[in-house]
From TrEMBL:
Tree of life domain: Bacteria
Protein name, entry field: Peptidoglycan/xylan/chitin deacetylase, PgdA/CDA1 family
PROSITE patterns for this protein: NODB (PS51677)
Record domain NodB homology: where: 77-290, 649-851
Matching InterPro entries: Glyco_hydro/deAcase_b/a-brl, NODB_dom, Polysacc_deacetylase_ArnD
An example Gene Ontology biological process: carbohydrate metabolic process
Classification via Pfam families: Polysacc_deac_1
GO MF annotation terms: hydrolase activity, acting on carbon-nitrogen (but not peptide) bonds
Amino acid sequence: MKNKKMVSSLVLFIGVCLLGLLFFKDFFTTPTGGDYRNITDLESSYDAEEEVAQALARMKSSQEKANVIMRSNSVQRQVALTFDGLTDRTSVQQILDLLKKHNMKATFFVDGMQTAEDPQTVVNIKKAGHKIENYSLSGMSKMETLPVERVVKDFSRAQKIIKVTTDQGPNLLKCNETQYTDLLLQAAKACGFNSVVKNDVFLNVKQMNSLFAADVFVSKLKPGSIVSVKLKPNIELIVNEPGKTDLRPAVDKQPGLKELPQEVELGEKETIDAVERLLIALSKANYTTVYVEDFANNNSIQKPVKTTSIQNSINNVKKNLNVSLLVTFLQAEVMDLFTYRTAYAAENVDNQAQEIKVISTTEPALSYTFGGLANETVVNDVLTRLHDLGIKATFFVAEVEMKKYPETLRRIIRNGHEIGIAIRPKDGETADETRSTIMRDTKNLQETFGVTTNLVKQPWGGVSDTTKEVISSLGYKLIGQSVNVVQSKHKDYTSADQVMGEIFGKSIFSLSRGQIIHFRMDYYTDARLVGDLLEKIKQHKIDNIAYTTFYDNPASNLANDSQYTIKTIGQILNNSKFTYQYPIDASKIPAHLKHDGPALLIDRHNFLAETSKRYLGNADVTYEDRMLGFSRMETRRFDTSGLVHTKDNVIFLTFDDWGTDAAVNKILYVLHKHNASATFFVLTNNVLNNPNLLRSIAMQGHDIGSHSDKHKPMAVRDPKTGRQVKVQDKVEYFQDLTTAYQKLRNVTGDVIVNGKPALTRFFRPPTLAISKMGIETLFESGYEYIINGSCSTYDYKAQNVPELVETIKEGVYTKNGEIKKGAILTMHMGDSCIYTPTALDILLTANEAKADSDPSKFTVGRLSDYLIDGYSQSNRKSL
């Protein structure tokens, strides 16, 4: 009986084992995924809601950013080889075989969607000994345009899928053709990535068509480069929601042209052949390959987190059995992530020419460009008007126009205008064909017309990556435009005012430094319309930028240099005195300005003491009005004078908010005219739309302070209860403050004036309101002084110049005519403050007319020269 029981038990045990082998065979043959023991279906296996919530929480509590790996500084002949996205399993296996054959390592950046669709391919990559990293959920481009919550979801979900599949979480993240903004780097860090990877060199499969081409490609590599091969074409999902408008920008197609062709996808065989040629060339050049993470500081890379679970094998079986369910799940994920998209600007990819739409310059100049020589009447009219106005412009000429209209081109050249090359690559045109066109045009201009140029423009249509790569390889400049005057709907317009009303609207007061305005001369029905437009734009959008009064006009005063000029693109680009790199080189920023954390050691014990030292108040800001979170006793410690403690006959001019060139340039001219420095408290929400203007302010010797990013006050009065309340919580306010400072630093952080940085850690609170939480957050985010000021001029409400002059004088002098030493005047630089420059000019002119011995004569100082280490607003004897 016992024997029968033992035999039965043995049979049962063997049966269970066989059944287990059948269902859990993957567990014994491949690495298995993580601590997900409660997984019951496909959707829950990739559920990352917990990870998303944790990441968002980390973003609120910390502003820490992921590092960016761009390349290595190693002198060894090493490169990091990466494959971006996934292709079919057979092709990937062929690539793996090639890597093994040539003894090369690679890093595969895989996207979550394709990993879920074909997990075995990813497992095969890992088995072959290569690194697997995160390429986001779908390898989507331009991710900086997504809301941060969507980005966090994307990163977290992709990480979950890859982690389940490979048994470890990737260490690195690479985003496809995406600008790594501070917010995106913060999101990456919050999702667990210490480092993100920025593309260094792309393999152009079309150009890698021979071993010779591969040798040339490798010969140009620098040791430490990151060479990337795209296995997955770009996708850009825009899903229309019911009742909502498609957010994609409309394409203004020129009449008679076909739609631009879609990017031609290369066959897998071409890609594999190109990879093999690359590997052969690398071997011949004695290059070895390393993993991308080897280029990073070891301390910045988290070690893989191993996870184990038999349940993952069940998921693999379920995936194989439920493909349609998986596809449905992934579609839902994509819909959730990408139903909202915003328009984005062209981005500079490392091996592609950046389309220059606005020249990074502080020179008070901009460019007119023209194209289309077919209508000789229009060309002659344009040349006449440019001559009469003293304007030199840049004309872009196509190859066919050089042949058909040589005399017209010679006339343009004789008039002193600059010539550039206009190209319009044909559908499916190769890089070699585009390169040949540009070189033919270059040669023709040199030999036939005696002109040398490195400027290339594609007058209409989207510029392809191939074209950008060709222009970059030739060392030429790709020129775009910030304002395209000619639009299809304007073809039969007869009035320049009609066109300008639709192009500029009511909100664009003026053009800006470095802008490029493009006119097409062979399009309008009315032959005089282009000429009318170039004159009208100059008159109403450029000439209005100058400071012009009856006593100081650029036309009669040679010293008045406030007029913006129209120059050729080459003249502006080649004037190194004014051009700069944007964003600026971080290595040129002083160390103390790079630091994003607290600049002061402040805690609850010394908070009130430090606040009273570093807060320059205002008489109208009191416990009852615009002070929140302080007791009445505490507020008695705070300054209400707004005066800098000094014995000097000095006043300080400050300007808040932001404006166009038309408003700010007038202020800058008046300050320069009187050799006066000021502090500009900049509202940064729109400042990156015109970084040239911000940098110009700094370069002219003025202090740069922050006025927040969104202009949300620390405290407002609730209209229902009458009580003072906060507008945002501490995390939101911290984000606003750090964003504002980072924007200012990216434009002006390297500007040094008289041995001191132009950028300060000064802050002007919106509406002058303060709160305990707000000041705590200010100190935590690195600001050092809160500056309200002694006189609010309310210049935006002034009715005329005399009224504003009197208001400013009341802020400078006592009733007895004595100077209010250390007075800080609060003015504004918005376009509504039309009387501010003139009123200031009158005041400063009158002051200069006084004898130096006159006790009522003042000087204008820089706040940064007085608010220095050791200064205390609570101690009049501190200086």
